[in-house]
Amino acid sequence: MPKLTSTFKATLNPSAGCCRRISQIQELPVAGYPFYSKPGPLVVVVVVVVVVVVVVVVVAAVAAAAAAAAAAAAAAAAAAAAVVVVVVVVVKVESCNNRSYVQGWEKRSPKRAESKDENLVVVVVVVVVVVVVVVVVVVVVVVEGVVVIVVVVVVVVVVVVVVVMVVVVVIVVVVVAVVVVVVVVVVVVVVVIVVVAAAEAATTIAAAVVTVMQVVRVVIAAAAAAAVVVVVVVVVVVVVEAVVIVATAVVVATAVIVVIQVVVAPAAATLVVIIVVVVVVVVVVVVVVLVVVVVVEVVVVAEAAVVLKKKPVLWSHEAA
């Protein structure tokens, strides 16, 4: 094999750490370069891929734990630090390796000059890959934050709907209580009429009693009419409220199901399903209560009408 004999010195910086001084080289074979060998592009790519994988795992863990803007900032900072470290390491290796061939060697070996260009391409590719990974991680963290905000908004809307339905139920209970009071008053008046009719004994006060009973009859008629009007209004209000509650429940359930299928992550699906079930149960209970109230009111009004149709005994002398 032919030999290439050369003698040269390379002046290097002793503090470089990864470089060594080449004092003199004799009888260098043309087929190989026996002194300091620098890592090829494949080694650099492997190192960079390992670093990027570690950074992505750490960033994913931080984003899953925080799920907020702080996680995005931490991820960006960690990825940026990884980029800086990778670039510094690659530049340092390139600098140390290239200084081994400062004097004369690149002129004698064009392959070394080509390897420098290849390593520069590797550095550019590594930087681009790391930047793309950083952008993807930041986008993922931002999307997770938006999903969390949407879930919170849905929960707040459901809570507001439940509170509104509870308020409606309270209003209905108050109206029913008022109606019950009116019915009790009517019953008391009717009882008073019966007692007065049974106590008819003195004919001297018959005219006065008749006059009083006429007034009482007018009052009873007015009270009955008022009670009927109140009951009709309550029935209409109850029916409207029942329709509104059912429609609201359907809309809320549909919206929540759409959110579950489109936006919410599978981990949060259980909570949302529980909320939907609770809302549906509350709506069903409210509707049942309203139906029972309407039935009770109709029965009470019917009984009052039957009582008012009976003519008191006190007025029996009018027929004579």
UniProtKB/TrEMBL annotation:
Membrane topology of this protein: Multi-pass membrane protein
Compartment(s) where it occurs, according to its Swiss-Prot or TrEMBL record: Membrane
One cellular component term from this protein's GO annotations in UniProt: membrane
Keywords from the named record: Membrane, Transmembrane, Transmembrane helix
Transmembrane intervals: 42-63, 69-91, 120-143, 149-171, 178-199, 205-238, 243-265, 271-302
Domain ABC transmembrane type-1 per the UniProt entry, residue ranges: 116-291
Gene Ontology BP terms: transmembrane transport
UniProt key word Manganese: no
Keyword Oxidoreductase set for record: no
Taxonomic superkingdom: Eukaryota
UniProt-recorded name of the protein: ABC transmembrane type-1 domain-containing protein
UniProt source species: Elysia marginata
Lineage: Eukaryota, Metazoa, Spiralia, Lophotrochozoa, Mollusca
